[in-house]
Amino acid sequence: VQLRESGGGLVQRGGSLRLSCETFGFTFITYHMSWFRQAPGKERELVATINSRGSSTNYADSVKGRFTITRDNAQSTISLQMNSLKPEDTAVYYCSVRRQGVDYWGQGTQVTVSS
Questions:
Q1: Which one of 9, 12, 73, 112 is least enclosed by Cβ atoms within 10 Å?
Q2: Contacts (Cβ under 8 Å, ≥6 apart) of 46
């Protein structure tokens, strides 16, 4: 299993970024997928989850109405559209899948929001 995030960067408060995650080595269409983030000195937290069909999503309260998780089952990718970014969104963002009881992570992509 391999996960590869991209799309992070530096953006000003109120700006937008779109993160992507390519996946390899498992049957993507059968698994829920998630985005997590980890800020310096803080625990990793769940940001958003999407079910295998893409018909159901869940978000952390802190990002509801600003972030949108989507998936493309034909390309085995997920994305996270982040709008109205705030400095407190600064973190390393990871995509993740739980497969057969094991959590897999990518290397992460840094998102920095300046004030």
A1: 12
A2: 34, 35, 36, 60
